[in-house]
Design a protein that fits this description.
Elements: H1 2-28, E1 33-35, E2 38-40, E3 42-45, E4 48-53, E5 56-59, E6 62-67, H2 83-95, E7 100-103, H3 109-121, E8 127-132, H4 136-142, H5 147-167, E9 171-173, E10 182-184, E11 192-197, H6 203-212, E12 224-226, H7 231-251, E13 253-254, E14 257-262, E15 288-290, E16 300-303, H8 311-314, H9 316-319, H10 330-339, E17 346-351, E18 359-361, E19 370-371, H11 375-391, E20 396-399, E21 438-442, E22 463-466, E23 470-476, E24 480-487, E25 495-502, E26 509-512, E27 517-523, E28 525-531, E29 534-540, H12 545-553, E30 571-573, E31 576-579, E32 582-583, E33 590-591, E34 594-596, E35 619-621, E36 625-631, E37 637-639, E38 644-650, E39 653-658, E40 661-670, E41 675-677, E42 682-684, E43 693-697, H13 699-709
Parallel strand pairs: 2-13, 6-7, 6-20, 7-8, 8-11, 11-14, 14-16, 16-17, 17-20, 27-41
Antiparallel strand pairs: 1-2, 3-4, 4-5, 9-10, 12-15, 18-19, 21-43, 22-23, 23-24, 24-36, 25-28, 25-40, 26-27, 28-29, 29-30, 31-34, 32-33, 35-36, 37-38, 38-39, 40-42
Helix pairs in contact: 2-3, 5-7, 11-13
């Protein structure tokens, strides 16, 4: 009897040991947090974001980049980025101490395979914030989320459901134009730490959804419910609920959820916003609430830039805010205002500064402008914005963007180019193309010409104009038309240089009014070099696309009467528009129509390897020569890859035509003495459908790397 008791006790102890070991093993091998039989890799707590690491949920500040789906010569819908490119970029992103990549839509199998392989070999994983894009063309068709029997909702949800299966390596997506497809076999579900659903909401879409569906004011499911919600917020709750429930039902897993928002549709009131549409509607994620099964939690996400909308320049409580540096800082003032309007964690899902030559908005108090910012300044500004985001208590910050995007357009240059050819050249006047930390520069290993006071790059380039005083060489790449001027006259006092440019198609000036200069050919453009520190690019007023569009067509230019006739002899410095006339609603203050001189040429070194590097440089003097580079768009080139320029201005359109090339004439004027400029041979080039380019990490990459390394934790803000 005693023997049986001892055996039973031994068996009991053995079972207990085995059970304890099994429990210990299960704890040690856990890769996610579980509750109610549902697991998650990340969750939210109060205003903190947590990720499951080292067998427990740990606070994590989300620091990383937004990544698009395009590279030069391709549109995003072509999904042309290779697995090898993704792997290389993941290494670079990880090396800058980033922990997260945000993508906007379903990516190719190559993306998720590269993510899986990288994380298998890396001691610190890269996480993904996964976006689900809503077709904006479909939005424009109805401006109502519930229209056409919920077609928008169904397509939105289906894309998200496909992504759930993709996360778990269990999807085969049929080809569809503009969408990723293929077989997805890698389980990356433990690297996807959150959903960011939707797009920057058009306020008219929000308004008409609310107007057309007054009965849709509440919603409740097993995971989400609404409280005092608008019909638009009900739409978001319905979509979010179906996405979360699908993954719970099929994979017993979930993850934190969020919805895209931006300043235009935030829940704050901005009394000094001059455009009523920018403060017209609100989307408030706080009206969507969690139920217990949504164990991943919810966070708010916003795209927050310092220069738009205009209330960032005019809202008194923002423009009077002095930051910890002693500077006026509307950006941080807004960050704090928005943060304190929420009870859940808040992510800055996009913040950025473009290193373009062209710009579209000014941040008038801070200088954090949308363009016309050097690559070095871009980095300094990004670090400042990141510091403000961290200091304001946000759960994370994602830079827009990882790579430059040649296919992009900007409102103040989009009328001047051919939209279907944008990816085939690099339009440095379009700021949207230059938000990246990674540049795509023309040339195999370097650009063919750098303004660097070294003219050895020009040795094999033919001379197209020559006189007793000067000679000129011209070449090009996918970004610039380059000129090298040789003359012994350039350093003489009381002299200036005039370079005349003709496209051979559009009527131009045969003289320069009030300057005693005449031309042998119709001259459409002119470069006037007045000294070794002052030079400008001029356009014939008759051929000035800016004056035509904003004067003749839109009647926005103060004092403008009617379009000037051909061969007037009048030139003016090239300009881009920044803003129409604005009226501050509370005060009645009138902010005049604003522009800036895109034709003002900047002196500096353009070689990225030089300590004197200035990415915005246009011109530089060397020993007996001058190097110049002019963006294609300033020459009214709509697409250099097919040699198409503006030939006619009709209504709001600019009619393209193909040219042979440009011809050039050069003269040195002593004081105001008469000068006649003859022309040399035509500089022509071959059309192209392929661009040789190389990747280059901008200075902003290295500045952000240091800033990211200094961030070790992001928790709740008092």
């Amino acid at each position: 009897m005693k023997k049986k008791l001892v055996v039973s006790m031994m068996i009991g102890v053995f079972v207990l040991v085995i059970a304890s070991l099994a429990f210990l093993f299960s704890v040690l091998s856990r890769t996610s947090f579980s509750r109610y039989g549902i697991s998650t890799i990340a969750t939210t707590h109060k205003k903190e974001f947590r990720v499951f690491q080292d067998r427990r949920l740990k606070p994590l500040f989300i620091k990383g980049v937004n990544m698009g789906a395009a590279k030069p010569m391709t549109f995003p819908g072509e999904l042309a980025i290779t697995k090898e490119e993704y792997l290389r970029w993941f290494i670079q992103i990880s090396q800058m101490s980033a922990n997260t990549i945000r993508v906007y839509t379903t990516m190719t199998p190559a993306f998720y395979e590269a993510l899986y392989e990288f994380n298998q070999s890396s001691s610190t994983p890269l996480y993904i914030m996964q976006g689900v894009w809503l077709n904006e063309e479909h939005i424009k068709d109805t401006h109502d989320a519930f229209a056409n029997d919920g077609f928008l909702i169904e397509s939105f949800v289906q894309d998200a459901i496909d992504l759930v299966n993709i996360f778990h390596g269990n999807a085969s997506i049929d080809p569809s134009p503009g969408k990723a497809s293929g077989v997805y076999t890698k389980n990356v579900s433990h690297y996807i730490i959150g959903w960011i659903l939707g797009v920057e909401w058009d306020p008219e879409f929000v308004y008409k959804t609310i107007l057309n569906n007054p009965e849709k004011t509440s919603f409740e499911s097993n995971v989400l419910k609404t409280n005092n919600a608008t019909p638009f917020e009900v739409f978001l709750a319905q979509v979010g609920s179906r996405v979360l429930e699908y993954e719970i039902d099929h994979y017993q897993m979930t993850r934190p959820i969020s919805f895209v928002n931006w300043l235009t549709t935030d829940a704050l009131t901005h009394s000094h916003e001059p455009d009523w549409k920018e403060d017209f509607m609100s989307v408030d994620v706080e009206n969507i609430q969690l139920k217990p099964r949504a164990i991943g939690g919810m966070f708010a996400s916003y795209h927050i830039y310092p220069y738009y909308p205009e209330f960032m320049n005019h809202q008194p409580e923002y423009t009077s805010y002095i930051d910890q540096r002693g500077n006026v800082n509307p950006y941080k003032a807004y960050l704090l205002d928005l943060y304190h309007s929420h009870t859940i964690p808040v992510l800055v899902a996009e913040f950025g500064i473009p290193s373009s030559r062209g710009k579209a908005h000014d941040a008038i108090h801070s200088g954090l402008n949308q363009g016309n910012v050097t690559e070095q300044e871009q980095g300094i500004m990004l670090v400042q914005m990141l510091e403000d985001i961290v200091d304001s208590g946000y759960m994370g910050a994602l830079v827009f963007a990882w790579q430059d995007e040649w296919f992009k357009r900007t409102w103040n240059t989009m009328d001047y180019d051919l939209d279907w050819r944008r990816p085939f050249w690099s339009n440095i006047e379009t700021n949207e193309q230059y938000f990246g930390l990674l540049a795509f520069d023309p040339g195999l290993h370097k650009m063919i010409i750098h303004l660097d006071q070294d003219d050895s790059e020009w040795e094999d380039i033919a001379t197209i104009f020559e006189s007793s005083k000067v000679s000129l060489k011209v070449t090009h790449d996918a970004r610039f038309l380059y000129m090298k001027l040789d003359t012994t006259q350039i350093n003489h006092d009381n002299s200036s240089i005039v370079i005349a440019i003709s496209n051979g198609v559009v009527p131009g000036n045969t003289f320069w009014d009030n300057q005693s200069v005449t031309f042998g050919n119709d001259t459409n453009f002119m470069i006037h070099i007045e000294s070794n520190s002052k030079a400008s690019f001029y356009v014939d007023r008759y051929y000035d696309s800016f004056e035509y569009l904003y004067g003749e067509v839109l009647q926005m230019i103060p004092g403008y009467s009617t379009r000037i006739q051909p061969r007037s002899g009048q030139f003016q410095i090239s300009r881009h528009v920044l803003s129409s006339q604005l009226i501050i609603p509370v005060t009645g203050e009138i902010i005049p129509f604003s522009t800036y001189e895109s034709g003002s040429l900047r002196f500096g070194v353009s070689d990225p390897t030089s300590p004197l590097y200035d990415s915005l440089s246009d011109i530089l003097f060397g020993d007996g020569f001058v190097e110049i580079r002019i963006p294609w768009l300033l020459l009214n080139v709509m697409d250099p890859s097919t040699k198409q320029i503006m030939s006619e201005f009709v209504g709001t359109s600019f009619v393209p035509t193909t040219i042979e090339g440009f011809s050039f004439g050069v003269g040195v004027q002593q004081g105001s003495q008469p000068l006649h400029i003859s022309f040399g041979s035509v500089y022509s080039w071959n059309s192209w459908d392929e661009v040789i380019y190389h990747e280059r990490l901008k200075p902003a990459y290295y500045l952000l790397k240091a800033a990211f390394e200094a961030i070790t934790y992001g928790g709740e803000h008092d």
